[in-house]
Amino acid sequence: MTREEKSWILNDWANSAYSVAITTAILPVYFKKVASQGLHDSLSTALWAYANTFATLVVALMAPLLGTLADYRGRKMPLFAGFTVLGVAATAFLALAGPGAWKLCLTLYVISAIGYAGSGIFYDAFLPDVTSKGKMDWISSLGFGWGYFGSTLPFIASLVIIMNPEWIGRDGAGATRASFVLIACWWLLFSLPMMLRVKQRYGLDPEPRPIRASWRRLIATVKNIRQYRAAFLFLLAYFFYIDGVSTIIKMAGVFGSDVGIDTNRLLLIFLVIQLVAFPFAILFGHLAKTFGTRKLLLAGIAVYMGVCAYAPFIRSEGGFWVLAMLVASAQGGVQALSRSAFATLIPANRAAEFFGFYNIFGRFAAVLGPLIYGVLVHTTGSSRFAAVGLLPLFAIGAALLFFVPMGARPVKEGELNRLAE
Predict the structure, then answer these.
(1) What global pTM score does this model have?
(2) Rounded Cα–Cα distance for residues 191 and 82 (Å)
(3) Kindly report the CA angle at 311 between 276 and 251, in degrees rounded to 5?
């Protein structure tokens, strides 16, 4: 691998610590057990779902214009760095959210989630800049794979602190808040190689009125959507199946808590998920070379459908372990191959604009899933049956994926210029 490919992969190593600790494991459990003290269990679960809905909605609304702006030469990295710093700062300030401070906790979480998701738009868009089309599946899978493995290190350190709070002179809740600072430092430290070494190779020449020009290009892209049939048909499939994936990731912590698993055991399960997901994400990248990207994506979606069908039958920790291992086997592969498949269908010099659409489809999808989940929990009073409501999302996404012409020729720069004119 080149130095730029390694630096790009290292950013997955950096921000995956946020994904597992803040989005999936430590913060959801802390919110349920400490920050939401005084709230009913079903209400706190619903509030967590609604906070995720709001954060993803904000990013979804910003993504297309931000992506279009980032396609100007020299703009992609400052936007990536700015959103990364925003997410890091909000994550560190979560240490201020003590017992019963659910409003502060949710506010800081939303800000950190916006920073994390916003930086992800530009990170994904750098994939065509750092590697060739033939290596995208492999490099993208390595990013997710090493991200899963790297995230276990600060996660283990956080677990050690949380389980031995006396080592730092805190109680359990105080040790958990200290872990938020640790995660923020890890994220920032290992994002630095990406900021310092990765360069934007493809882009558009700067214009006097970049925002106005960006809107014009964005409107032209939407008006001429038929010119990008393969990319947008893929996005439509992605909209549905990634909705289910992201909802399961975000609601796994509160689901386990509602099943009755204690905090320490739940955190251990999430640690094992990361370790198991590491080799499976890389395996998906290898198998895609032999069987093709579409078949591997469909296999991952099928696993998730099994997870949704199995969820209502979980009554014990053992059942949750089975569900967790199923998720671990498919999660990284589906995410990695989705990113690389889309990157092969778009023009490299407007990657940020198209990944803006990629993120808006993903984020708007992530609005729907947690909302469905939250409403079903509120209505039925059970997290187990709420998971079944995600099944149609995976089924529709899989059906649409059959019609995507994988490997279709991306629209060339000259054609895009004529369309914009």
Answers:
(1) 0.72
(2) 12
(3) 70
